[in-house]
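Entry 14. Ran structure prediction on the chain below.
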Amino acid sequence: MKTIYCNSTVGTFVLASYLHQQRPDHFKFVELTGSRTQLASALIDPDSHVCLSIGSLGDLRLIENIAEQIRSLTGGSALPSGKLIAGGSAFSYFDARQMMAYFEEISHVVIGRGEVALLGILDGKIAPGLIDSSALPQHDPYELSDALPWHRQRPVPIGRHDYVCQWGRCRFCHHSEAANATRSTVEVLAKQIVDYHRRFGSKFFIIYDNHLEPDELDFLLCYLRDRKTRVFLDLFGMRMIPAVLPLEPRLREINMVRSIGWGLELYSQRVLNEYRKGILLLNMAPILQMAQRCGIFSRVYILFGLPGCADEDYEATRKFLSEHAARSGSIGQIMLSWFLLSGGLMESMPGGGSSLRVRDPYCLHDYFGDASEFSGIRTAFHAFDTRDPASGAWLSRDDEFLRHAAPFRELMLHPRVIFDHRSFFLKAETWKQVWGDSLNEWMQARSAPIPRLRGRFLTAPINYPHAQPA
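Output, structure tokens:
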């Protein structure tokens, strides 16, 4: 039997299900703690493998920690092939070859879906290096399982496709770039939830779907009700369109949706139209109020920093969010981010990017803000300048941030706002101009809750208004 040490992510949950179905009783899964004792055991045992699923740039600290401990334990000696394997969605955000050169302990890095690749690596059939899973055979359909013992008390992550938006129109969206994404029907999704619930008793499911239509949600709820499957759902990816509003009777009758993530982006019809978001301001408040009446916790995603935004756009957004988060309570959480430009988005920008001047890619130093061993690795995101329509001058992202600092600073202080300041890729000097000498204390106060929130969401996510399942 092979022992797989893995960190706890959506990716490892899915991969463990695949391995378990392909080889029942052949794999033992152990949650990776990164402790010296655990890694020493993994290195000694020839049938043990350390598999890292990297879902964000911040997770690269995990690779750094594991690699440092392995070097200490081995004295820098080479590891057997397949001892340390990495993959995950974050590898599309930076130069994976560069990273492998920094961390020679990693024998394989998988880009894309990892099911077939990981099994081939564990069987010793795939040579070390950077593995493009799109060049491998497609995996057969398989069922999710509770193969990870530590995940059994957590909500079950489930979706219909690779995390790519089928809407595919928003000009700022990185999720629209991938080609040939696989997608199943809502019927398949509904059946998966029913089957998993019946087999393992799980009552909480997180549905990752960047484009769940109202009629599909209606079908899903009725399917679960008719099969007497009493579960609770957290939804990520509904558009704020009028067709959502008639769902209110169904959402009240079948009280299973406990939270919804809405892509609001910015409270400016001009900007939403320019970036082809496909939603209207006049629908936002009624949809949030409808969800509130149904006892649904609303999480809204806000994107500042889009080229072409003006002070009035940010101020209108701040006022709208304050009204619905503080006064009416129809917004439970505000997920705040600052626009990043990748090469694949350049041509989709308004005017074909004529108002942008693209500069060098950001490196991981620009994210972590320190001189880590891997800080020189290039990311997929580019610095860029925007032409100011009034003066004709070119402004950097940092200049643009400082221009609109007042409403942004006020919004960041709101208790329901969550963000990771590192993901903005702004210079420390820029933050200091906004926050002054209190920068370090402010960073700690606002950034520390992020990992705790993520952990809390996976176990007992927020005190939702309606009753929890018995």
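DSSP finds 17 helices and 17 strands in the chain. Will compare against last week's run tomorrow.
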